[in-house]
Specification:
By secondary structure, the protein is mainly alpha-helical. Helices cover 83% and strands 0% of the residues. The chain has one domain.
Length: 229
Amino acid sequence: MFSHLAKILFVFLLVAVIPALSHVTARASRIRLVPRLSLYSSAVVSQWLLAGVGMLVAFWSSHDLLAAMFRFVPLRVMLLWAGALAVGALGGLAVESVLERRGWWPAESELVYLLIPETRREKLWAVLVLAPTAAFCEEFLYRGYLLGLLGQWSHSLPLSWGASSVAFGLAHVYQGWAGMIRAAVLGALLAYPVVHLGSLYPSMLAHGLIDAFALGWLGPRLMRSRLVA
């Protein structure tokens, strides 16, 4: 009974509390005065804490689910899947930036631009610490735990796939409508190898590559073009 209650509470945390906290944080004016590296370190600590709690809940109540998340896949298969996902997602980001500049897509929120690294130290932090953290923690939480648990409860792959992707999008409410839609679509894309291979490793690698490239190169490039325009 207690393990079942823990699972319910943690799912509620992911689908309701995290989006609410994200929304409150985005509305706070003082967040814009916080140094970028402090924002990065805060995000890293909070994600690892959340993933740690999720690990404990999964270990306590869902041993089979936890084991299924980290099923071994051949290195070649993992690299092929991760590469294809990363190329597709980054291509989508490039198209989105073009549509935004032409006014055909919602503009990015101010916070998104505030999070783009500018100095060499910030880029190293973003690529070597922030991106791997998001890759492991978010994939475990949303494509591993939430997708798997909702699938067990609903016995419906489309429902659990869609619901976990929407929850991932809501967790990025601080990025505005454009960011939430992008995150939900990316979440659905990253869930594909999890469903078909039964392992989180390809999605984790793809997620890390996407974030590292977006933060280390694409984001600063788009920021420069925005300032020029």
